[in-house]
Design brief:
The chain is α/β, with parallel strands linked by helices and 202 residues long. Helices cover 19% and strands 29% of the residues. The chain has five helices and 14 strands. The strands form three sheets. The protein has a six-stranded mixed sheet, covered by helices on one side. It has a six-stranded mixed sheet with strand order 7-8-9-10-13-14. A two-stranded antiparallel ribbon has the order 11-12. The longest helix is centred in the last third of the chain and has 12 residues. The protein is globular, with a radius of gyration of 15 Å.
Protein backbone atom coordinates (compact mmCIF):
# COMPACT_ATOMS: atom_id res chain seq x y z
CA UNK A 1 0.00 0.00 0.00
CA UNK A 2 0.94 3.62 -0.49
CA UNK A 3 0.20 5.72 2.60
CA UNK A 4 0.47 9.51 2.62
CA UNK A 5 -0.21 11.75 5.61
CA UNK A 6 -1.32 15.34 4.92
CA UNK A 7 -2.36 17.19 8.10
CA UNK A 8 -5.47 19.28 7.53
CA UNK A 9 -8.01 21.49 9.24
CA UNK A 10 -7.73 24.02 12.04
CA UNK A 11 -6.07 21.55 14.40
CA UNK A 12 -3.95 19.92 11.67
CA UNK A 13 -5.32 16.43 12.30
CA UNK A 14 -3.56 13.68 10.39
CA UNK A 15 -5.44 12.94 7.19
CA UNK A 16 -4.29 9.73 5.53
CA UNK A 17 -4.63 8.90 1.85
CA UNK A 18 -4.18 5.16 1.42
CA UNK A 19 -3.96 3.46 -1.98
CA UNK A 20 -3.62 -0.12 -3.11
CA UNK A 21 -0.68 -0.21 -5.51
CA UNK A 22 -2.08 -2.83 -7.90
CA UNK A 23 -5.38 -1.11 -8.60
CA UNK A 24 -4.93 2.51 -7.41
CA UNK A 25 -8.15 2.13 -5.42
CA UNK A 26 -7.91 4.39 -2.38
CA UNK A 27 -9.54 5.71 0.76
CA UNK A 28 -9.15 8.78 2.97
CA UNK A 29 -9.08 8.61 6.77
CA UNK A 30 -10.28 11.61 8.79
CA UNK A 31 -10.34 14.59 6.41
CA UNK A 32 -10.15 17.35 9.02
CA UNK A 33 -10.31 20.03 6.36
CA UNK A 34 -9.99 20.65 2.64
CA UNK A 35 -6.43 20.43 1.33
CA UNK A 36 -5.40 21.15 -2.24
CA UNK A 37 -2.38 18.89 -1.67
CA UNK A 38 -4.71 15.98 -1.00
CA UNK A 39 -6.81 16.65 -4.09
CA UNK A 40 -3.71 17.05 -6.26
CA UNK A 41 -2.28 13.77 -4.93
CA UNK A 42 -5.48 11.87 -5.71
CA UNK A 43 -5.73 13.35 -9.20
CA UNK A 44 -2.04 13.17 -10.11
CA UNK A 45 -1.75 9.55 -8.97
CA UNK A 46 -5.05 8.65 -10.66
CA UNK A 47 -6.40 7.22 -7.43
CA UNK A 48 -9.92 5.84 -7.50
CA UNK A 49 -11.32 7.08 -4.19
CA UNK A 50 -13.74 4.49 -2.79
CA UNK A 51 -14.19 5.51 0.85
CA UNK A 52 -14.03 8.54 3.13
CA UNK A 53 -13.61 6.87 6.53
CA UNK A 54 -14.18 8.61 9.85
CA UNK A 55 -12.52 7.15 12.92
CA UNK A 56 -14.90 9.33 14.96
CA UNK A 57 -17.16 12.32 14.53
CA UNK A 58 -15.31 15.27 16.08
CA UNK A 59 -15.19 18.19 13.68
CA UNK A 60 -11.39 18.40 13.58
CA UNK A 61 -11.54 15.02 11.80
CA UNK A 62 -14.60 15.66 9.62
CA UNK A 63 -14.62 19.29 8.44
CA UNK A 64 -13.35 18.34 4.99
CA UNK A 65 -15.83 15.52 4.35
CA UNK A 66 -18.46 17.51 2.44
CA UNK A 67 -15.93 19.04 0.06
CA UNK A 68 -14.25 15.72 -0.73
CA UNK A 69 -17.65 14.14 -1.30
CA UNK A 70 -18.47 16.93 -3.74
CA UNK A 71 -15.18 16.45 -5.60
CA UNK A 72 -15.27 12.63 -5.50
CA UNK A 73 -18.97 11.75 -5.43
CA UNK A 74 -18.39 8.00 -5.93
CA UNK A 75 -16.57 7.75 -2.58
CA UNK A 76 -18.76 6.39 0.24
CA UNK A 77 -18.68 8.06 3.66
CA UNK A 78 -18.09 5.46 6.40
CA UNK A 79 -18.50 5.68 10.20
CA UNK A 80 -19.30 3.43 13.14
CA UNK A 81 -22.99 2.90 13.90
CA UNK A 82 -22.31 3.81 17.55
CA UNK A 83 -21.34 7.32 16.41
CA UNK A 84 -24.77 8.22 15.03
CA UNK A 85 -25.81 10.38 17.98
CA UNK A 86 -22.61 12.40 17.92
CA UNK A 87 -22.72 12.84 14.15
CA UNK A 88 -26.29 14.09 14.30
CA UNK A 89 -25.59 16.80 16.91
CA UNK A 90 -23.21 19.69 16.10
CA UNK A 91 -22.74 20.41 19.80
CA UNK A 92 -21.59 16.89 20.58
CA UNK A 93 -19.33 16.80 17.54
CA UNK A 94 -17.98 20.27 18.43
CA UNK A 95 -18.88 21.60 14.98
CA UNK A 96 -18.99 25.31 14.23
CA UNK A 97 -22.07 24.90 12.06
CA UNK A 98 -24.52 22.26 10.86
CA UNK A 99 -23.14 18.85 9.89
CA UNK A 100 -23.24 19.02 6.09
CA UNK A 101 -22.77 15.39 5.07
CA UNK A 102 -24.52 12.07 5.56
CA UNK A 103 -22.84 8.79 6.40
CA UNK A 104 -23.60 6.21 3.69
CA UNK A 105 -22.07 3.08 5.24
CA UNK A 106 -22.55 2.44 8.96
CA UNK A 107 -20.18 -0.23 10.24
CA UNK A 108 -19.78 -2.22 13.45
CA UNK A 109 -16.97 -4.09 15.17
CA UNK A 110 -15.53 -6.83 12.99
CA UNK A 111 -16.97 -5.58 9.71
CA UNK A 112 -14.78 -5.82 6.61
CA UNK A 113 -14.60 -3.30 3.79
CA UNK A 114 -12.99 -4.39 0.53
CA UNK A 115 -10.47 -2.26 -1.34
CA UNK A 116 -9.34 -4.17 -4.39
CA UNK A 117 -7.46 -7.17 -2.98
CA UNK A 118 -7.17 -5.63 0.49
CA UNK A 119 -9.44 -6.03 3.49
CA UNK A 120 -10.12 -3.14 5.86
CA UNK A 121 -11.12 -4.54 9.25
CA UNK A 122 -13.16 -2.32 11.55
CA UNK A 123 -12.29 -2.34 15.26
CA UNK A 124 -14.80 -0.55 17.49
CA UNK A 125 -12.72 1.23 20.14
CA UNK A 126 -14.96 3.43 22.31
CA UNK A 127 -13.53 5.75 24.91
CA UNK A 128 -12.64 8.98 23.14
CA UNK A 129 -16.17 8.88 21.71
CA UNK A 130 -18.86 6.18 21.89
CA UNK A 131 -18.36 5.22 18.25
CA UNK A 132 -14.63 5.64 17.97
CA UNK A 133 -13.06 3.04 15.71
CA UNK A 134 -9.76 1.96 14.21
CA UNK A 135 -9.10 0.52 10.75
CA UNK A 136 -6.71 -2.41 10.39
CA UNK A 137 -5.22 -3.16 6.97
CA UNK A 138 -2.63 -5.93 7.09
CA UNK A 139 -0.08 -4.61 9.62
CA UNK A 140 -1.22 -0.99 9.38
CA UNK A 141 -3.57 0.43 12.03
CA UNK A 142 -5.30 3.79 11.61
CA UNK A 143 -6.10 4.59 15.22
CA UNK A 144 -7.82 7.98 15.08
CA UNK A 145 -7.90 9.51 18.56
CA UNK A 146 -7.88 6.19 20.41
CA UNK A 147 -4.12 5.61 20.58
CA UNK A 148 -1.34 8.15 20.06
CA UNK A 149 2.43 7.89 20.29
CA UNK A 150 2.87 7.36 24.06
CA UNK A 151 -0.51 8.91 24.71
CA UNK A 152 -4.25 8.36 24.27
CA UNK A 153 -7.26 10.39 23.20
CA UNK A 154 -8.96 12.73 25.64
CA UNK A 155 -11.91 11.31 27.53
CA UNK A 156 -13.40 14.50 28.96
CA UNK A 157 -15.56 15.32 25.92
CA UNK A 158 -19.19 14.22 25.50
CA UNK A 159 -19.44 10.42 25.56
CA UNK A 160 -15.83 9.91 26.60
CA UNK A 161 -14.72 7.33 29.16
CA UNK A 162 -11.22 6.56 30.42
CA UNK A 163 -12.32 3.08 31.49
CA UNK A 164 -13.65 2.41 27.99
CA UNK A 165 -10.61 3.70 26.12
CA UNK A 166 -8.26 1.70 28.35
CA UNK A 167 -10.32 -1.43 27.74
CA UNK A 168 -10.41 -0.74 23.98
CA UNK A 169 -6.64 -0.39 23.78
CA UNK A 170 -5.91 -3.42 25.93
CA UNK A 171 -8.49 -5.76 24.37
CA UNK A 172 -8.54 -4.62 20.73
CA UNK A 173 -5.15 -3.05 19.99
CA UNK A 174 -2.56 -4.55 22.31
CA UNK A 175 -3.54 -8.02 21.07
CA UNK A 176 -2.25 -7.11 17.59
CA UNK A 177 1.26 -8.06 16.54
CA UNK A 178 3.97 -5.88 18.07
CA UNK A 179 5.18 -4.88 14.60
CA UNK A 180 1.80 -3.37 13.67
CA UNK A 181 2.41 0.22 12.57
CA UNK A 182 0.07 2.74 14.19
CA UNK A 183 -1.04 5.84 12.26
CA UNK A 184 -2.77 8.09 14.82
CA UNK A 185 -5.05 11.08 14.34
CA UNK A 186 -2.44 13.42 15.82
CA UNK A 187 1.34 13.25 16.30
CA UNK A 188 3.68 10.76 14.63
CA UNK A 189 3.52 7.07 13.84
CA UNK A 190 4.38 4.39 16.38
CA UNK A 191 4.00 0.63 16.78
CA UNK A 192 1.89 -1.58 18.99
CA UNK A 193 5.04 -3.01 20.57
CA UNK A 194 6.39 0.44 21.44
CA UNK A 195 3.09 1.43 23.04
CA UNK A 196 2.84 -1.77 25.06
CA UNK A 197 6.31 -1.09 26.42
CA UNK A 198 6.13 2.64 26.99
CA UNK A 199 2.64 4.16 26.93
CA UNK A 200 2.16 5.64 30.43
CA UNK A 201 -1.65 5.74 30.20
CA UNK A 202 -2.30 2.08 29.35
Amino acid sequence: MKITCIPSGMLQANTYIVAEENTNKAFIVDPGGYSKKTVDLINNENYELEYIILTHGHSDHTDGVAEYKRLFPAAKIVACEKERELLEDPRKSMSYGPIDFEVEIWVKDGDILKLGDKELKILHTPGHTPGGMCILVENHLFSGDTLFQYSIGRTDFWGGSFADIKKSIQNKLYVLHDDTIVYPGHMGTTTIGAEKRGNPFV
